């Protein structure tokens, strides 16, 4: 036999043996994982569930040896089991383990698949912070990952989609949008009609709803309704809820109710948590239309469903609506209890209470005559409202304080009347009258003095709060809240977004005090240089600044000003300090968000170009 034929035959035999070994190994690992799953399942349904956390890492490591079809099925089975047996603590533990060095030996496709499944489990249990923490540690490696199969590509896109959704729930919409857009691009690369593109549009609708961009929210919700994948009914009620809410926020309650009725004519969504959100929007619309009797009935059903589903944020809103409606129909004690529970109920990812909850609680407390308590909760409302960058109706606080002062005055008047009665009983009418007048005058002066002092303190505190609400405490510049208001003004024609380079070095090497001095120095130099140009400066992040200018300055002039600021900063002793910036004019973008986004992108392009610039040694 010729040597070439012999070699081909040997190679073929080796390949056959290798294939048989791979099949045998895969079958062996599949049997091991199935045995492990049976043990985990038995433990999960027992009283002591703690061993599940100990067994799962071994199960995940074993799944690393399986084919894509098998490790996908394995992760799905575990997810269903953890949810069915309410293994919240186990899900949190697995999220931490997947981010540890112990999981580094797992191939990316398997590890990221488990991260995706675990993220969905954590969101199911309302553990949004844990999901976000796990994904944040892997974001950079997820983006550079080059998955080979469509299943792995789906995992990559879904992880970005999930992270964007988590940011939206924190109302960090501007940060979330790039992740949605990247996820949508990845999905389209897999399939131009990929079902997840529908989900992206749903979440974009939700994102713009949180950003108070109600027209855009309506647009994306309607687009999602136009491309519902065949058989995809699990989020329809949620989508209709987003659409109805966006329409309602545009002061079109009748259209919102028509949208709600359109869904109710053919309800197809089996997800109770999504239908719960839809019902909460339905109640809002009924309240707008003052159909309170129907709203009360729906609120009771919704509250019952929220308790059954166990979603913390939705249960909080359900209690708020039911409390308001019970109060409207005169059941004040029930209303007080429900609204108190709404105030103190956990809220999931947002970790805060809606200002509306405080406001409705204050209204009930006022009607019950509990003015001191009402005043306290109205101050909570004030803080929450400021954090959401909305205007505050301080007249209500003043009214509550006046009512509290009236109660104090009534008590003082009662004391004076008692003294007068005692004086009359002692037959010293003439002397006691003069004394009474004297004491009344003293009391009135005392009360007037206290009121004046309280008024002065309140005015001073009000001015301090107003200043703090719009100014940055470190630099004295306007803050991000002031920037969000200023950017709406039509007379600003040019925007510069600038970001310090080198802050991390000074924080790490010299301490955060030195880093603060760097930020203060840069802010001072920029202000001194650009003030003559009619610029308005804002600190909008840790080391990020925005500059609004009424007129469009030449780019050479801006470059000179920015370089001059860095030169002065370096002369102050910050030799390694630098800054990147991006410029955008109002004519380039119509929407405020797009204008800021354009300047921000250009700033990051400058920062990236500096990173890519070769060093002296390289040259």
Number of helices: 26
Per DSSP E runs of 2 or more residues, the count of β-strands stands at 4
Strand order of the largest sheet: 2-3-1-4
Biggest beta-sheet profile: 4 strands, antiparallel
Estimate the mean pLDDT confidence.
82
CATH superfamily label of one domain: Reverse transcriptase/Diguanylate cyclase domain
What is the distance, rounded to the nearest whole angstrom, between the alpha carbons of the first and last residues? 60 Å
Rounded to an integer in angstroms, the radius of gyration calculated over CA atoms is: 32 Å
Structural features, described:
- It is a single chain.
- The chain has 619 residues and is mainly alpha-helical.
- Among the domains are: 393-470; 480-612, Reverse transcriptase/Diguanylate cyclase domain (Alpha-Beta Plaits), CATH 3.30.70.
- The protein is 73% helix and 4% strand.
- It has helices at residues 3-44, 50-63, 68-84, 88-98, 108-124, 128-136, 139-144, 150-169, 173-190, 195-210, 214-226, 236-249, 253-264, 272-288, 292-309, 312-328, 332-344, 355-367, 371-387, 394-425, 429-470, 480-486, 503-510, 512-530, 555-571, 592-612; strands at 494-501, 535-539, 544-549, 578-585.
- A four-stranded antiparallel beta sheet has the order 2-3-1-4, with helices on both faces.
- Helix 2 (50-63) packs across helix 4, helix 8 packs parallel to helix 10 (195-210) and helix 19 (371-387) packs antiparallel against helix 20 (394-425).
- The chain is globular and about 105 Å long.
- It starts with a helix and ends in a 7-residue tail after the last helix.
- Residues 1-6, 12-26, 390-407 and 615-619 have low confidence and may be disordered.
């Amino acid at each position: 036999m010729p040597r070439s034929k012999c070699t081909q035959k040997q190679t073929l035999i080796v390949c056959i043996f290798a294939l048989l070994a791979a099949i045998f190994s895969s079958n062996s690992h599949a049997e091991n994982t199935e045995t492990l799953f049976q043990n985990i399942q038995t433990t999960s349904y027992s009283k002591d569930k703690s061993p599940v956390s100990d067994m799962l890492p071994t199960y995940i490591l074993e799944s690393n040896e399986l084919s894509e079809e098998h490790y996908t099925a394995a992760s799905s089975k575990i997810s269903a089991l953890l949810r069915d047996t309410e293994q919240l603590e186990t899900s949190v533990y697995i999220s931490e383990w997947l981010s540890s060095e112990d999981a580094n030996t797992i191939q990316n496709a398997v590890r990221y698949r488990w991260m995706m499944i675990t993220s969905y489990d954590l969101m199911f249990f309302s553990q949004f912070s844990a999901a976000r923490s796990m994904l944040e540690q892997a974001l950079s490696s997820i983006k550079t990952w080059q998955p080979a199969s469509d299943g792995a590509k789906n995992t990559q896109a879904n992880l970005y989609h999930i992270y964007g959704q988590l940011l939206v729930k924190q109302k960090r919409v501007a940060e979330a949008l790039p992740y949605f857009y990247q996820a949508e691009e990845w999905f389209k690369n897999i399939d131009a009609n990929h079902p997840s593109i529908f989900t992206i549009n749903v979440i974009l609708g939700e994102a713009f709803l949180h950003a108070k961009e109600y027209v855009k929210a309506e647009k994306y919700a309607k687009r999602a309704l136009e491309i519902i994948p065949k058989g995809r009914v699990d989020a329809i009620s949620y989508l209709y809820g987003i659409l109805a809410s966006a329409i309602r926020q545009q002061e079109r309650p009748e259209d919102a109710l028509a949208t709600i009725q359109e869904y109710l004519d053919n309800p197809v969504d089996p997800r109770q948590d999504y239908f719960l959100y839809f019902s909460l929007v339905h109640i809002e619309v009924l309240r707008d239309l003052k159909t309170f009797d129907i709203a009360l009935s729906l609120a009771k059903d919704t509250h019952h469903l929220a308790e059954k589903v166990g979603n913390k944020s939705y249960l909080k809103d359900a209690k708020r609506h039911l409390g308001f409606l019970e109060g409207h129909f005169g059941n004040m004690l029930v209303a007080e209890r429900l609204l108190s529970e709404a105030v103190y109920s956990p809220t999931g990812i947002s970790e805060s209470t809606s200002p509306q909850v405080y406001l409705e609680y204050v209204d009930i407390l006022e009607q019950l005559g509990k003015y001191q308590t009402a005043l306290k909760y109205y101050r909570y409302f004030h803080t929450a409202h400021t954090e959401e960058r909305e205007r505050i109706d301080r007249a209500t606080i003043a009214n509550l304080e006046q009512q509290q002062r009236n109660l104090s005055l009534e008590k003082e008047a009662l004391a004076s009347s008692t003294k007068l009665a005692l004086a009359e009983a002692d037959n010293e009418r003439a002397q006691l009258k003069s004394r009474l007048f004297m004491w009344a005058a003293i009391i009135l002066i005392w009360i007037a003095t206290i009121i004046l002092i309280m008024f002065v303190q309140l005015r001073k505190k009000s001015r301090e709060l107003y200043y703090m609400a719009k100014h940055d405490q470190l630099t004295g510049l306007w803050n991000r809240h002031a920037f969000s208001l200023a950017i709406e003004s039509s007379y600003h024609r040019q925007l510069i977004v600038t970001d310090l380079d080198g802050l991390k070095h000074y924080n790490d090497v010299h301490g955060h005090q030195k880093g603060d001095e760097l930020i203060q120095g840069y802010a001072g130099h920029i202000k001194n240089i650009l003030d003559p140009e009619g610029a308005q400066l804002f600190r909008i992040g840790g080391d990020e600044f925005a500059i609004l200018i009424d007129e469009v300055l030449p780019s050479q002039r801006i470059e000179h000003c920015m370089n001059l600021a860095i030169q002065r900063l370096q002369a102050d002793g910050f030799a390694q300090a630098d800054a990147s910036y991006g410029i955008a004019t109002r004519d380039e973008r119509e929407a405020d968000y797009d204008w800021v986004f354009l300047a921000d992108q250009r700033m990051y392009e400058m920062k990236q170009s500096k990173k890519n610039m070769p060093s002296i040694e390289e040259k």
